[in-house]
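Thread: "does anyone have the structure for this chain?"

Original post by V.I.:
We have the sequence but no experimental structure in hand. Need at least a predicted one for the grant figures.
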Amino acid sequence: MLNNDRLLVQILLLALLGACLWVLAPFVSALFWAAVLAFASWPLMRLLTRWLKGNATLAAGVLTFCWMVLVAVPLVWLGFNIADQIREANALLHNLQVDGLPPPPTWLGELPLVGERLVTLWGTIDEQGTALLASVRPYIGQVGNWLLVRSARVGGGMLELALSLVLVFFFYRDGPRLAAFVHSLLDRLIGERAEHYLELVAGTVQRVVNGVIGTAAAQAILAYIGFSIAGVPAALVLAVLTFAFSFVMVPPLVWGPAVAWLAWRGDYGMAVFLGVWGMFIISGVDNILKPYLISRGGNLPLVVVLLGVFGGVLAFGFMGLFLGPTLLAVAYSLLGDWLVKEVPDAVGHPAHAIDSTDSRPQC
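Reply from O.Q.:
Generated one for you, tokens below.
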């Protein structure tokens, strides 16, 4: 009867755990990003707490407010810019309907092989502009619906980001208690190896954070050098944007329009230079520097790191950049522990069998 009661309690606990996970499922991504942000910036939290004479709550509030300002100001600026671009696009479409296309640029006809054809095509589009707009009008609605869906997803991402910035306050304030709870839980589950796996996960996440930030900084510096050589205005601002876009692994969204702007001005040599520099130097360094920084200081082979980074991104999105290497690191360590315990015994038995059977009489 006692065993049945214990089994019933265990079933109830599992059901309670499943219900809790079900409740937290919509907030998993926000909790994950809040935890990563708090872990990555924990040295700042310790320093600020020391400056505020041990007041962890005030330090958590100040640091969370700083993150909100750093995130909110660029997002508001980006929103206003997008709104301005939409108004300009609407005005451009209206002008095209009324006045038609402007005269073709002089450099268009100077392009080798295709210049005359492009000028002719420009004139044809100008003459048939009204009919062309009428033919593409049904597709404009589909594009609008597609943009509406993407806008809804972006809005959901913004809400998730805002929730992460709220949750990070509690990770800052209650971080030591949460760490002690996780340590006690792992100690109850796996015993003396709990400390090892905690250090493994913490070290892997820290190396991933260092790799992401270090790669973003390197790409920003290389972008600034390329923009300065090519003569692109506001090179420093574009380098800062490259640093921000590097976190989502799309620096071409910064240097690509710069290449198009140079080509529009007729600076074809600098456009080709910046395109090659952006493709092979700015974007290419991500494939080399990030895996190196993530694997540096750890016991993971580089191929495991590469599989963890790229496979994690493909499987989980940007969150997989942290989850992929961490999961592979834990699995690799578990497999190594199992081999250390099992292989010596398995190898020892055949050797012992050979020694015991090799009892032929000596001549």
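V.I.: this helps a lot. The CA atoms of residues 351 and 357 lie 10 Å apart.
O.Q.: and The chain has two domains: 28-173, 193-338.
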